[in-house]
Amino acid sequence: MKKAYVFPGQGAQFIGMGKDLYEKSPLAKEMFEKANEILGFRITDIMFSGTEDELRQTKVTQPAIFLHSVILAQTLGESFKPDMVAGHSLGEFSALVANKSLTFEDGLRLVSKRAMAMQKACEAEPSTMAAILGIDDDKVVEICKSITEEVVVAANFNCPGQLVISGSMKGIEIACEKIKAAGAKRALPLKVGGAFHSPLMEPARIELADAINSTKFNQPICPIYQNVNAKAVTNPDEIKTNLISQLTSPVRWTQTMVNMIADGATSFVEVGPGTVLQGLVKKVNNTIEAVSA
Asked: Which overall architecture, per CATH, does domain 127-189 show?
């Protein structure tokens, strides 16, 4: 009987997120105020009562989701006893604070650095992503590889028959046409700022690598299943290497869920805003319990 805790990534944000924690928990209030201080602006004002546009800025969205997830985990107190953790893209940083690889402060600084670096990479070269539904993953990978004149790759393997591709504007357009012609139910361009988890994030990866390499990572209290290889990792140096590779590598979420279940996970708890990850667990294995914290 092993309990797995999973942490969401970008896209799970909503106005009002974390406000109940701030108002009801002195610990949560203290952590949110510390975050405002570290970031140099009152992110809580945007999270609790800002506009959708303000919250959608990458430099705000990523720290906001991280804070909601990590602070919620902290307020669970003694009941928070993970046997294993994983996080979807950005959520990997929340998972690393949850298993004590990173301190709260260092995790927040890295997430803020990541968000700024990704924002810069997005502005340097217009790019996007698209959701692909109802076609075999291998077929999508094959089609992306066949497009050599533009950058386009499979970026997020979310669950069987549902993945996200990432690349240049033209690359995504060409890929969507070919994928629909190959029988996909849907190929839907997403409203995102750039091509996350693709080679176009290389400038951000280089920038983030320096910050990660100069941050102390501790021995975790339980394994983290990382996005780049979907395997259990406990070695701090290996965790760092995988985290650096994450920005330009695909999120292997389907395989992560499969491996966690194979390694004994009998229930999944999603910690943070939204319920997307619970749904993905059920699509991988509908006999497994998946709930929200």
From this structure: 2-Layer Sandwich (3.30)
